[in-house]
């Protein structure tokens, strides 16, 4: 056997040539064009730099465009996705002692937002295929203190909104969609963010619709909620076109405004958003088609009637299906993590633990004196076996595939997976060690 052949066939962890050349391991995101630069410079030179001027501003332009894109009547810009969630909860009147049902698998902000409102997050398990709130787990978590459900369209896949809305309707609960990862995804033909009473989006740089820093957007069809959200965003004042600012705070408010420069950048990105998403759809489905051939590897799928924003790609691993009985899923995942990384496939874990295991919740680190938990008597968190299993047996690809030109890199990532799968005996030995 000649040396070059050997080096290509040998796993990179044992001295072989990595499947993914170095430049393809990190791909630029966000993609920043001259149009984006011009939009920012135009705002710097022409203003308005404040976001609460009377009349049109970069913020109102973006709000109008995003409301149209989500088919909602209103959109309210905020300083980030987390404040979009808290401003929405404030507008919906969620407060001390209220229980808000949140998926156990999400980014920390989904669990912190209720606490910011002095409400109590109650964590429910997720579906093993879509990774979004399991309606049966939600139904089981409801108590007389429950006032809201906070479904997260995790990784870009819409939560199963019809049964969730049904439960909410029966119990008189508010529904706030956390759409921070799911810009443009649809559920039964409707864009996410326009399905519950309100939807919260993040414009943080790594999200599918980015700004050049931090930003958020809130969508709703309800004029009253939109008005209250605007008040919560700006000191509790009424800021309306054509109305003189009276400097009176009518409600509890914060300063959670979106800045003009951030809005101008995102509006420019929005011009290319649908084109980028179409490219992503092609690149990702080609990639997943190849990976779906590998035994014991479950690729993300799309539920009937939904479209996926493909913000994060999560792969689950089953040692039995891979023909490696006797390995635990966790040991299999650890070995794959090490070998795939060595090949240059940028897999990583997304969330190291379920939200309820985070110290802020186990230690009840809130506002002090036990609050917000002291404001209610929440039942103990339910079992979340599905969330735990998912975190044990899966890895993700983040950010790389967002670039519309990611196709060739994803092909090399698939090479890396296939190479590791050609050495499952090595994986088994490593996992058992
Ligand atoms: C990013 C994210 C948020 C928070 O958005 P920020 O803009 O970072 O504050 C909330 N929920 C989910 C699911 C997210 O991924």
From TrEMBL:
Q: Does the keyword Manganese apply?
A: no
Q: Name one Pfam family in it.
A: DegT_DnrJ_EryC1
Which cofactors must be present for this protein to function?
A: pyridoxal 5'-phosphate
Task: Output the Gene Ontology terms for molecular function.
Answer: pyridoxal phosphate binding; transaminase activity
Keywords, A to Z, come to: Pyridoxal phosphate
The family database entries (CDD domains) matched by this protein are listed as: AHBA_syn (cd00616)
Q: Which GO terms describe its biological process?
A: polysaccharide biosynthetic process
Query: Carries keyword Membrane?
Result: no
Please give the SUPFAM superfamilies that the UniProt record associates with this protein. PLP-dependent transferases (SSF53383)
Q: Which family does it belong to?
A: Belongs to the DegT/DnrJ/EryC1 family.
- Mind telling me what this protein is named? dTDP-4-amino-4,6-dideoxygalactose transaminase
């Amino acid at each position: 056997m000649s040396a070059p052949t050997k080096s290509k066939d040998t796993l990179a962890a044992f001295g072989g040539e990595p499947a993914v050349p170095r430049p393809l391991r990190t791909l630029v995101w966000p993609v920043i064009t001259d149009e984006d630069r011009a939009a920012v410079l135009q705002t710097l030179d022409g203003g308005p730099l404040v976001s609460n001027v009377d009349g049109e501003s970069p913020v109102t332009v973006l709000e109008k465009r995003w409301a149209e894109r989500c088919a909602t009547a209103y959109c309210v810009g905020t300083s980030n996705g987390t404040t979009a969630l808290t401003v929405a909860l404030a507008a919906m009147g969620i407060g001390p002692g209220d229980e808000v049902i949140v998926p156990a698998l999400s980014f920390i902000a989904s669990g912190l937002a209720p606490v910011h409102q002095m409400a109590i997050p109650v964590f429910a398990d997720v579906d093993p295929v879509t990774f979004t709130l399991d309606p049966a787990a939600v139904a089981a978590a409801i108590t007389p203190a429950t006032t809201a459900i906070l479904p997260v369209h995790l990784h870009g896949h819409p939560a199963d909104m019809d049964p969730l809305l049904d439960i909410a309707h029966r119990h008189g609960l508010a529904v706030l969609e956390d759409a921070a990862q799911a810009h443009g995804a649809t559920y039964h033909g409707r864009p996410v963010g326009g399905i519950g009473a309100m939807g919260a989006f993040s414009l943080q740089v790594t999200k599918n619709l980015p700004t050049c820093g931090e930003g958020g957007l809130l969508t709703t069809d309800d004029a009253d909620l939109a008005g209250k959200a605007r008040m919560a965003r700006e000191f509790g004042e009424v800021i309306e076109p054509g109305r003189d600012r009276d400097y009176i705070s009518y409600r509890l408010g914060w300063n959670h405004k979106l800045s003009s420069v951030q809005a101008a950048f995102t509006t420019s990105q929005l011009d290319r958003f649908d084109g980028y998403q179409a490219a992503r759809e092609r690149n990702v489905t080609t990639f997943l088609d190849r990976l779906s051939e590998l035994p014991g590897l479950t690729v993300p799928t799309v539920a009937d009637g939904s479209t996926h924003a493909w913000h994060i790609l999560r792969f689950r691993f089953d040692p039995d299906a891979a023909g490696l009985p006797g390995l635990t899923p966790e040991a299999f995942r650890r070995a794959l993590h090490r070998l795939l990384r060595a090949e240059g496939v940028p897999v990583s874990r997304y969330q190291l633990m379920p939200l309820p295991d985070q110290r802020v919740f186990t230690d009840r680190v809130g506002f002090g004196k036990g609050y917000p938990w002291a404001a209610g008597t929440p039942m103990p968190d339910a079992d979340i076996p599905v969330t735990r299993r998912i975190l044990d047996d899966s890895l993700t690809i983040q950010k790389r595939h967002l670039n519309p030109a990611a196709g060739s890199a994803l092909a090399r990532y698939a090479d890396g997976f296939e190479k590791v799968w050609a050495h499952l005996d090595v994986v088994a030995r490593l996992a058992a060690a």
